[in-house]
Amino acid sequence: MSWFFLIIGLTLTLWDIFFIAKTLQGNIIKRFVFILSGVTVIKVIYPSYMLITYKETLISLIIGLVFLITHLLIAKGIKLRFSDINVGIIKTCILIYFIELPAEELLYRGILLIPLINMTNPVIAIFISSVLFGALHIKTWNNKFVWIGSFLLAMTCAISVVISKSIWTAIIIHNLNDFGYLTLVNKRDIFTHRSANYK
């Protein structure tokens, strides 16, 4: 069964890395496919990975806050000002933190990592899922620091899933990391200032 889900995961990963959606609607549809596939795979292989305890939540929050604070220290503070907050930033945050990042975690840590853990040892599983996650960011970002940071984030999220046996630890860590980098530092707003990827 793990082989079957791994093939699905690798197929979706290749779709994610090599076929960047040209429209926002196309990206949202792709992310919903990842979410539904990830939840289905986890429910079939290890339904307990959909659960999280208070202790795991607290540890995930602490790790995620370390990533967030690191971004703020590197950027020398929060760049987002109250006057910057508009409907575009709010809609962008909803898309990123409730659709985009859970979809990435369910794909790279759910559909890929969990079957790989069943088929190999955790170190190999963590490395493979992290390299594939890093490949996505090499394709979508033209910044070597983002590439390195994405690989470190991927390793941290994968290790958190292996240790906690919960996909939610990775989702929490990833959300806090990206909230620091994309929202507080870079003021990401894909609605007011359309990115080059979307028309």
Structural account:
It is a single chain. This protein has seven helices and no strands. It has 199 residues and is an all-alpha fold. The chain has one domain (2-185). The longest helix is centred in the middle third of the chain and has 33 residues, at 87-119. The chain is globular.
- Low-confidence blocks of residues: 194-199
Total count of helical runs of at least 4 residues: 7
Mean pLDDT: 92
Percent in helix: over 70%
Oligomer: single chain
**Count of domain modules:** 1
Shape: globular
GO molecular function: peptidase activity
Transmembrane segments: 6-25, 32-52, 58-75, 82-99, 111-133, 145-173
Organism: Clostridium punense
Keywords: Hydrolase, Membrane, Protease, Transmembrane, Transmembrane helix
Produce a short descriptive summary:
The protein is mostly helical and 199 residues long.
Give me the secondary-structure topology.
Elements lengths: L1 H17 L5 H22 L8 H22 L11 H33 L2 H19 L3 H21 L2 H19 L14
Helix pairs in contact: 1-2, 1-4, 1-5, 2-4, 3-7, 4-5, 4-6, 4-7, 5-6, 6-7
Primary descriptors:
199 residues; mainly alpha; 7 helices; transmembrane
